[in-house]
């Protein structure tokens, strides 16, 4: 069963700032190893980008900002204009992200998805990475409602998929590589907090679909057309 009561060290407002900043810094490597965003960019996001006008993307719960940075780099390399707004509820994450070298078209901001809904904002693409497992069932429903309001095209939430093999694989193959941060401990707790594919399918409102990605990932998608 999902252990959503487990707290992650990085969510503690009083946690060690040095370790937290190392956690944000190491997210880039972890995500490169396990998250598969290059594949998601090529298969799901890039087909929605227009070459003839600027495109917009919102990344929710951006942490240290490595995923929106990668998306900005890939889109620029492919010749697209992509304006990215990356938001996080935690001021410490935004401070870390803003302290990194600036990327053209990428803007970080402390906000929740509901703040942008109230402002009437809309984006061609909405993404998140490792956000869903942070949420309770009712928070997840609220987030998905916000995403429907914010989306003018496609929403892709990518998250861990809970399974004993994912837990073992992370404990043996990934956690020992990261020292001086919360990656190991929080990663294992995140897997225990995350949804199985069946749980996510059950929670997905009409219009949303769940796809799996190797290794041990769930993609919760809204707005995909037949060509996807
Ligand atoms: C595990 S981190 C993932 C960070 C980043 N997306 C990555 O994969 O490296 C989850 C982030 O989501 C943020 N978060 C959690 N709930 C949020 C919400 N409702 N709105 C915005 N950010 C949220 C947390 O502050 C945290 O920085």
Automatic annotation (TrEMBL):
* Signal peptide positions on this chain: none
Which GO BP annotation is one of this protein's?
A: methylation
Give GO MF terms, alphabetically: methyltransferase activity
Q: Does the keyword Magnesium apply?
A: no
- Keyword terms of this UniProt record: Methyltransferase, S-adenosyl-L-methionine, Transferase
The record ties this protein, via InterPro entries, to: Methyltransf_25, SAM-dependent_MTases_sf
Pfam families reported for this sequence: Methyltransf_25
Q: Which domain of life is it from?
A: Bacteria
Residue ranges occupied by any Methyltransferase domain in the UniProt entry: 58-147
The protein's name: 2-polyprenyl-3-methyl-5-hydroxy-6-metoxy-1, 4-benzoquinol methylase
Organism of this sequence = Deinococcus radiopugnans ATCC 19172
């Amino acid at each position: 069963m999902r252990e959503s009561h487990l707290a992650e060290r990085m969510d503690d407002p009083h946690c060690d700032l040095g370790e937290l900043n190392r956690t944000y810094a190491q997210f880039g490597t972890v995500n490169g190893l396990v998250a598969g965003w290059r594949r998601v960019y090529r298969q799901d996001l890039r087909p929605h980008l227009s070459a003839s006008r600027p495109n917009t993307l919102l990344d929710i719960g951006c942490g240290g900002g490595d995923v929106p940075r990668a998306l900005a780099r890939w889109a620029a390399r492919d010749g697209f204009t992509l304006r990215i707004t990356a938001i996080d509820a935690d001021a410490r994450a935004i401070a870390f992200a803003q302290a990194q070298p600036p990327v053209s078209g990428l803007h970080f901001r402390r906000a929740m998805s509901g703040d942008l809904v109230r402002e009437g904002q809309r984006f061609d693409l909405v993404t998140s990475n490792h956000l869903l497992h942070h949420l309770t069932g009712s928070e997840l429903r609220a987030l998905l409602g916000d995403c429907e309001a914010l989306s003018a095209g496609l929403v892709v939430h990518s998250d861990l998929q809970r399974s004993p093999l994912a837990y073992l694989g992370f404990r043996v193959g990934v956690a020992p590589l990261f020292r001086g941060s919360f990656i190991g401990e929080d990663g294992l707790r995140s897997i225990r907090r995350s949804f199985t594919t069946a749980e996510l399918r059950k929670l997905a409102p009409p219009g949303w679909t769940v796809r799996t990605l190797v290794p041990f990932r769930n993609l919760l998608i809204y707005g995909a057309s037949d060509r996807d």
